[in-house]
Amino acid sequence: MSFFDLDFWVGVGIVAGIYGIFTLGLQLNVGFTGLINLGQAGFMCVGAYAMGMLVVDAGWPLGLAFPAAIVIAVAAGALVGLASLRLRADYFGIVTIAFSEIVRYVFQNAAFAGGNQGIIGYDAEWRAFQSWASERLAAIGLGEAAEVPLLVAVWATLLLCLAALRALQLSPWGRVLKAIREDEDAAAALGKNVFAFKLQSLGIAAALATIAGFFLAMNVTYLYPSEFDPSFTFFGYAVLILGGFASYGGVVVGAVLLCALTEGLRFLDLPLSAGQAGSLRFIIVGLILICLSMFRPQGLLGSKAEMQLRA
Amino acid sequence: MTATRKAGEPILAVSDVTKRFGGLLAVDRATFAVAHGSITALIGPNGAGKTTLLDLVSGYDRPDFGAVRFEGRRVDGLASYRVARRGVVRTFQLTRVFAAMSVRDNMMLGAQRHPGEGLHRLAFSRAAVRRAEAAARERAERLLRAFALDAKASEYAGALSGGQRKLLEFARALMAKPRLVLLDEPMAGVNRALGAKLLDEVERLRREEGMTFLFIEHDMDIVMQRADRVVVMAEGQVVAEGPPEFIRRDQRVIDAYLGRRGNAA
Fold it and tell me: ipTM of this model?
């Protein structure tokens, strides 16, 4: 495979877009509400599995199963929030990661979710659309890469979510979230129902996780529990830190850079075994993140002034 | 919204309020009232339980025993944001501004019942949101001018001096159009000229908008000049209550508070 392989980079673009949508939700929680959500992969798992099971087991069309899955994931977010949002920030983080692992192990072991075999066969409608779209693209000379329609769909969705979240952040609602991040007692003294705002923030993040999970499901062709392990959330945090705290634009930049970096490093031609080369890629990515936190601690698009004021 | 105001009924009535932290009796059967439209000072030596009492009144803590009534209705046990919505807004001893937000945004957060803070209204009643935002902005600019903070409106609140933060916190509380303002040492760290301005503003708001103020203060000159009633606490108990000139001569107060200072001097 050459460095200029189009299919390869289309694939990287899809994964970057999925991480972008996923991490926009994290940014809303972490960067703009001060909620350390470590369970984002769990919400994604609930949403993706709900979609898969509604299509495969209940025979729902994808167009219905998808919004229903969002509702289910938001309900899961509300449930986790009701149980844990009154806890201190660090305990909230612990509860969310526990939730994420509980979800994963349940789906891995429950017969209704396909267990270790996972769920397959939910994407027939999408495949049909994809081949229809590919033919149209081929007619105008863009037919080389099969996954272009997915790439377009992911990125159109990502940019739409980005625009919506930015508008929300500039609204009075977003202003309250930021105040809660800064000092929730002071926000309460001004009559703000801190708990309700946190719950809304978590619910929207769960919805974004589901959208990311939807595209992930279409990209991988079958749902399998270990796709949703906590390392997905932590990779999202790496995207967030690289792009910059409290910056939605930074999420997009961070997702593209981090995915291009981890995947592009595959082309390093070194006399190493496949396992060694894989480890080396992550060592290099880790070093770059360390250098970034030394020389640009606010991230690529984060605000240094804001960061210092929070310290 | 006008209060259901009966003749002679105090705006705030604290009765037998008790709070214990482990072995420490922080507030011990505290009973006092704050009259409508008054400027009431809460004084007492360090550790007397003044801030704890303020926490109990504003919903930041629950009393173990006793009742707090605001405009005749119980507010003890209510969540702090609900107490604020009833019309009781407080400031904090250690000033709490939203550091990484602009001074103007800090002020805008004081606006009450802002439709733009609800997701559904944001989506479906955009005109109402714009109107509320414009009205809040106007009030914020006016208050910032009154406190000489207008030149700093676009700066981060965290970049203000300690005194300016105190002023911002007070101005932000006023954004909420409260009927009772609780101030925890509003003068601490504020220079005398700015402090005098703040107190002039308190008197103007009381006169023109009928606001009531309860403030914790250590500077006895200020208390004697500006307060029309004084509540004195010592070791968790309210030991005296009355007009300043009466408090000044009260032997229990002299023993508990002024006397100690007098001996030291």
Answer: 0.89
Q: What tens-digit pLDDT sequence spans chain A (311 residues)?
A: 677 788 889 999 999 999 999 999 999 999 999 999 999 999 999 999 999 999 999 999 999 999 999 999 999 999 999 999 888 878 999 999 999 999 999 999 887 878 778 888 899 899 999 889 888 888 887 767 778 899 999 999 999 999 999 999 999 999 999 999 999 999 999 999 999 999 999 999 999 999 999 999 999 988 988 899 999 999 999 999 999 999 999 999 999 999 999 888 888 777 888 888 888 888 888 898 899 888 888 888 888 888 888 76
Residue A167, min C-alpha distance to chain B (Å): 10
A171 contacts in chain B (CB < 8 Å) = 116, 122, 129
Gap between the Cα atoms of A62 and A67, Å rounded: 9
Residue whose C-alpha is closest to residue A74's, from A50, A97, A58, A94: A50
Of A179, A306, A310, the CB nearest to B109: A179
Distance, first Cα to last Cα, chain B: 49
Judge: domain B12-97+180-191+212-264, CATH 3.40.50.300: yes
Domain count for chain A: 1
CA angle A296-A298-A303, nearest 5°?
125
Domain assignment present for residue A306? The answer is no
pTM for this one? 0.91
B-chain CB neighbours of A34 within 8 Å are none
> Domain for residue A89, yes or no?
yes
Domain range enclosing A188 = 10-229
Nearest by CB to residue B96, choosing from A173, A186, A309, is A186
B100 touches chain A (CB under 8 A): yes
Give contacts of A177 with chain B, Cβ < 8 Å: none
Closest CB to B116 among A172, A188, A192: A172
* Domain presence at residue A284: no
In a domain, A76, yes or no: yes
Q: How far apart are CA A226 and CA A45, in angstroms?
A: 10
Q: Please state the φ and ψ torsions of residue B256, each to the nearest 5 degrees.
A: -75, -30
B 199-258 residues inside an 8 A Cβ radius of A:
none
The set of residues, in sequence order, having a beta carbon less than 8 Å from that of B194 and lying 6+ positions away, is B148, B163, B167
- Residues in chain B with CB shorter than 8 Å from the CB of A191 are 81, 84-85, 89, 112, 176
- Smallest Cβ–Cβ distance between A188 and the set B84, B173, B175 belongs to B84
Q: Residues of A at the B interface (Cβ-Cβ below 8 Å)?
A: 168, 171-173, 175-176, 178-179, 182-183, 185-194, 200, 305-306, 309-310
d(CA B217, CA B223): 7
**A189:B58 CB<8 A:** yes
Percent of chain B with pLDDT over 90: 70
A191-226 exposure pattern, b = at least 16 Cβ within 10 A, e = fewer: bbbbbebbbbbbbbbbbbbbbbbbbbbbbeeebebe
